[in-house]
Write a structure and sequence with these properties.
The complex is a heterodimer of chains A (about 300) and B (about 80). Chain A has about 300 residues and is mostly helical. Chain A is built from 11 helices and 2 strands. Chain A is globular. Chain B has 3 helices and no strands. Chain B is an all-alpha fold and about 80 residues long. Chain B has one domain: F1FO ATP Synthase. The chains are: A mainly alpha (about 300), B mainly alpha (about 80). At the A-B interface, helix 2, helix 10 and helix 11 of A face helix 2 and helix 3 of B.
Chain lengths: ~300, ~80
C-alpha cells in the first residue's frame, strides 16, 4: 500500500512534463504538435499549418456551414451508406451536425446504461464503492425533492436524478480530448427538448393535482385573471429561459476555451480553463437546471 | 465584400460588443448583491453556511441568465451575419 499513497501527484507530474515538452516543442507559431486519434490510431505529429481562428470556430460550432463552405466530403461518417441514410432522413442541410449530435447522445446514453447495469448486477450483499456514490447522489436529491414537494411526492425523485445525471455527464463528456467529441448540450436542440419535457411534466402534475378544469381555470378566466394571455406567454418563456441558460453557458464556455487557448498557442492554460468552464460551470448548471425543474413542479403542487 | 456588406458586418460587430457590455452590467450587480447578502447571512449564522452557499450559487446562476442571453445574441450577431 505504500506505493499507492499519492496517485494524484504522479498524474500531475506527468501532466507537467507533457506540458513542458509542449512548451519547448511548439515555440514556433507556424508549427504545432498534434496529439490525438486519427482513424483509430494514436498519433503525435509535427504539422505545419496556418491557424485561422475564424475557420476553427466555424468548424467547431457550425460544422454544417463549414462543410458547405469548404465542400469537402465528410469523412466523419466512416461509410458511404450511413451518410446517404442521414442525408435522406435529415435533409441535405443538417446531415453532419445531426449525426455528430446523435452520436454523442448515443455515447452518453450507452455510458449511463453501462454504469447502471454494471452497478445493478452486484446490488446485493456488501455495497461497492460506485453503489455508495450513486446512493449518495440519490439520497441527497431525494432530500431536496421531499423538502420542495413534500414527503408524499418523493415519486418525482427518479426523474430529477435522471435529469441531473444526464445533464452532468453531457457537460463532462466534452472534456475527453478526442476529435469530434462535443457536449450534446452545446447544441440548442438538446436543452430545448429537456426544457419542453420539464414544462410538459409540470402541466401533467398540475392536472393530476387540481384536475383538468381546476388547472385550466387559471388560464381561461378573464374575470378573475384579466391578464391570462400573459400567463400563457409566461409558460412559453419558462421553456426558453431554462433551456437557453444551459445552452448559453456551455456554448459560451466552449468558445471562450477555444479562443483563449488559441491565443496562448494551446499550452498550459486550457487545463485551467477546462477546470472552470467544464467542471465547475457544468456541475453548477446541471444542478440549476434540476433545481429549477423541481421549483416549477413545486409551484404547481403547493398552490 | 462590397460596401453594404461591410457596413452590415461592422454594425453587427459593434452591436455585439455593445450587447455584451451592457448585458454584463445587470448580472454583475445582481450577483455581487447576492454574494454580499450571503456573506451577511453566513456572518450572522455560521452553522447554516452550506445551505446559504448552495442557495447563493443557484440564485447567482439564475440571475446570470440575462447575461447569458446577451452572450447568445452577440454570438449570433458575430457568426451569422
Amino acid at each position: 500500500m505504500a506505493k499507492k499513497k499519492r496517485p494524484m501527484l504522479k498524474i500531475f507530474i506527468i501532466f507537467f512534463v507533457v506540458e513542458a515538452l509542449l512548451v519547448v516543442l511548439s515555440g514556433n507559431f507556424s508549427k504545432q504538435i498534434q496529439i490525438g486519434f486519427d482513424k483509430g490510431k494514436f498519433v503525435i505529429r509535427h504539422v505545419e499549418f496556418e491557424y485561422n481562428l475564424q475557420n476553427k470556430i466555424t468548424e467547431e460550432f457550425q460544422i454544417d456551414e463549414y462543410f458547405r463552405q469548404t465542400g469537402e466530403t465528410p469523412e466523419i461518417y466512416g461509410s458511404e451508406k450511413l451518410y446517404e441514410f442521414f442525408k435522406k432522413v435529415f435533409g441535405e442541410k443538417s446531415a453532419i451536425g445531426s449525426f455528430q449530435l446523435l452520436r454523442m447522445l448515443l455515447i452518453v446514453d450507452l455510458l449511463l446504461l453501462f454504469v447502471a447495469l454494471s452497478i445493478r448486477k452486484k446490488l446485493f450483499g456488501r455495497p461497492s464503492k460506485p453503489q455508495i456514490l450513486f446512493e449518495m447522489i440519490y439520497t441527497s436529491l431525494e432530500q431536496f425533492v421531499s423538502e420542495t414537494l413534500g414527503k408524499d411526492k418523493v415519486s418525482y425523485t427518479p426523474y430529477i436524478v435522471t435529469l441531473f445525471i444526464f445533464i452532468w455527464v453531457s457537460n463532462m463528456i466534452g472534456l475527453i480530448p478526442i476529435p469530434g467529441f462535443m457536449e450534446p448540450t452545446r447544441n440548442l436542440n438538446v436543452p430545448l427538448g429537456l426544457g419542453v419535457f420539464v414544462v410538459a411534466i409540470v402541466h401533467i402534475t398540475a392536472i393530476k393535482v387540481k384536475g383538468l378544469w381546476g388547472h385550466l381555470k387559471n388560464y381561461i378566466n378573464p374575470v378573475k385573471n384579466p391578464l391570462f394571455l400573459l400567463d400563457i406567454v409566461g409558460e412559453m418563456s419558462k421553456v426558453v429561459s431554462i433551456s437557453f441558460r444551459l445552452f448559453g453557458n456551455i456554448l459560451g464556455g466552449a468558445i471562450i476555451i477555444l479562443v483563449v487557448s488559441s491565443l496562448v498557442n494551446f499550452v498550459v492554460l486550457p487545463i485551467g480553463l477546462s477546470m472552470f468552464f467544464g467542471i465547475f460551470v457544468g456541475t453548477i448548471q446541471a444542478f440549476v437546471f434540476t433545481m429549477l425543474a423541481l421549483t416549477y413542479i413545486g409551484v404547481e403542487i403547493v398552490e | 465584400m462590397d460596401l453594404a456588406q461591410g457596413i452590415v458586418k461592422a454594425a453587427a460587430l459593434l452591436g455585439a460588443g455593445l450587447c455584451m457590455g451592457m448585458g454584463a452590467l445587470g448580472p454583475g450587480v445582481g450577483e455581487g448583491f447576492v454574494a454580499g447578502k450571503a456573506c451577511e447571512g453566513i456572518a450572522r449564522s455560521p452553522e447554516n453556511a452550506s445551505l446559504i452557499t448552495r442557495t447563493m450559487l443557484v440564485g447567482q446562476a439564475v440571475s446570470e441568465s440575462t447575461g447569458i442571453y446577451s452572450l447568445v445574441i452577440s454570438l449570433l450577431l458575430i457568426f451569422s451575419t
